[in-house]
Design a protein that fits this description.
about 160 residues; mainly beta; OB fold (Dihydrolipoamide Acetyltransferase, E2P); 3 helices; about 45% strand
Length: about 160
């Protein structure tokens, strides 16, 4: 008697940030925008440079480099904005570049390691790690983000109040 084995896949949108590869669930992605004019919101946290007008909707933007303390964008880079749904709210994430969409087998996804100390390297944002083939024929690590942990409810409420 043979049992049918089913493999569960998760589709992720891959993007680059400070030379590393990150992934987010494709079902959370609404669209990808080229650089749009950002309106600064007074008293917003430094990792929230402001808001954009997306076809009449005001969308707060999170600068992931600043949120993860990865340094400033290098001169000549043209970041993009990935529009996502986080906790039933629309949010833009500014990233260095978007690369592709991958199907990850659930067996490829490993939990983030325990670094021991609380608050280390923003581990609360990491949903898992996956090893994926790279262009050089080797393997690369893909950091999978937990978008629901990206902002606290307090952060979102603060942005909504600042944006009117």
């Amino acid at each position: 008697m043979s049992s049918a084995q089913t493999t569960t896949y998760q589709q992720v949108l891959c993007f680059a940030l400070a030379g590393e590869s990150y992934g987010i669930p494709i079902l959370k992605v609404r669209e990808i925008q080229g650089q749009a004019p950002i309106t600064r919101i007074p008293r917003a946290p430094d990792y929230m440079p402001g808001v954009i007008n997306l076809r009449g909707a005001i969308v707060p933007i999170v600068e992931l480099r600043k949120r993860f303390n990865l340094g400033a964008i290098q001169d000549g880079m043209r970041p993009v904005i990935v529009i996502v749904e986080v906790m039933s709210r629309t949010l833009g994430m500014r990233v260095d570049a978007v690369s592709d969409v991958l199907d990850l087998d659930e067996d490829q996804i490993k939990p983030a390691p325990d670094w021991g100390a609380e608050g280390t390297v923003g581990k609360e944002y990491i949903a898992g790690l996956a090893t994926v083939p790279n262009a050089e024929g080797g393997d690369s690590m893909l950091i999978l983000l937990d978008l629901d942990q990206l902002l606290s409810l307090g952060d979102i409420k603060e942005l909504e109040q600042a944006g009117g």
